[in-house]
Amino acid sequence: MSVFISSVRHRPWLTQVTLLAVLLGALLALSLKTQDRIRSQQLPNMRISQLAAAYADLRDSNLEQSKQIADLRKQLTKYQQAASEDNGNAKLLSADLQKANLLAGLVPVSGQGIIVTLKDARNPPPKPADMSQEVYIETLRPYLIHDQDIQAVINELRAAGAEGIAVNDQRVVSTTAVRCVGPTVLVNNVATNGSPVKIKAIGDSDTLGSSLMMPGGVSDQYKITDPSMISVDKAKEIILPAFAGATPIRFAQPATEAKAEQAQRESEKSAAQAPVPTEDAPEIKKSLGNRN
Questions:
Q1: Residues 6+ away with beta carbon under 8 Å from 284
Q2: Cα–Cα distances in Å, from 177 out to 58, 219, 248?
Q3: Are the C-beta atoms of residues 150 and 221 closer than 8 Å to each other?
Q4: Residues 250 and 154: beta-carbon distance below 8 Å
Q5: Could you tell me the CA-to-CA distances from 144 to 124, 132, 157, 187 in Å, in that order?
Q6: 292 residues of the chain, pLDDT tens digit each
Q7: What does the alpha-carbon distance between residue 41 and residue 19 come to, in Å, rounded to a whole number?
Q8: Per the confidence metrics, is the pTM higher than 0.85?
Q9: DSSP code, position 203
Q10: 11 to each of 1, 14, 15, 80, 263, how far by Cα in Å?
Q11: Which pairing describes strands 197-202 and 109-118: parallel, antiparallel, or unpaired?
Q12: Angle 194-101-209 (CA atoms, 0-180°, nearest 5)?
């Protein structure tokens, strides 16, 4: 009897983990292939009703695949935890893996934090009779929530130390794109509500809230239009779902040790050469002016 066969018999979870990993990879590849097909193919010459039906079918298929991926990741995590109980080294590796999955957004997380709500202005200005439709649309822009508003909140939360963020219950990861298409907000290529937009973040609730409400911060831009366009609420417990989309890596690969050290030196050099903010800087002047 070979050593490998004996090892597999004494560790039945090894086969299960392998099968789950293969199945998860197949589903991710299928999801990626579907997305590539949608991007590469032009819209067929169909009526609006037919396009809507085709879109609904693709959306439902994508959602079903996302659910299957999430379930498989959950099972894979359980088997990885069971595998770590065999010895101390595996336990340490499992702890590092769980931390990496948490930071990457691949597992659900919970903790204290804040909920930011962005919504369109309650009473936008009416269209004057002598104003063209094009000019009126531009006039309305500050009174509507756009993708740059959502991205500005995400940036502030990350800078304030948020450990997990979700937009309309879609987990924000390193590859997340937030785009507005008409009244719809696409997060991870998943259509969500355009208004109101719910942004949940886990972290120190006081720090996260202060980062958005500080003078000259994100909330100040809505004071002129409508202060009710943004609200920030603290929460004792927030639960964020795991990212359930495809995570393909086509071009990035681990750098060699020499290249990694070179990149680190260049990063440190760039940080050391960064200018020191002074009170003469436009951003500092604006902040000081808002305080007075």
A1: 277, 278
A2: 19, 22, 15
A3: no
A4: no
A5: 9, 19, 21, 18
A6: 444 444 445 555 556 666 666 666 666 666 666 655 555 554 455 556 656 666 666 666 666 666 666 666 666 666 666 655 655 666 666 676 777 777 788 889 999 999 999 999 988 889 888 989 889 888 888 899 999 999 999 999 999 999 999 999 999 998 898 988 877 888 888 888 888 999 999 999 999 999 999 888 889 888 888 999 999 999 999 999 988 877 777 888 888 888 888 888 888 788 777 776 655 555 544 443 443 3
A7: 33
A8: no
A9: S
A10: 15, 6, 8, 12, 42
A11: antiparallel
A12: 50
Helix, strand and coil content of the chain, in percent to the nearest 5, comes to 55, 15, 30
Output the six-digit token pair for 166: 């979700």
Tell me the C-alpha distance between 192 and 194, whole Å. Answer: 6
Are the CB atoms for 164 and 202 separated by under 8 Å? yes
CA end-to-end distance (rounded Å), the chain: 82
Q: What residue type is assigned to position 199 of the chain? A: I
State which amino acid sits at residue 56: A
Token readout for 165 is: 């963020």
CA 136 to chain centre: 32
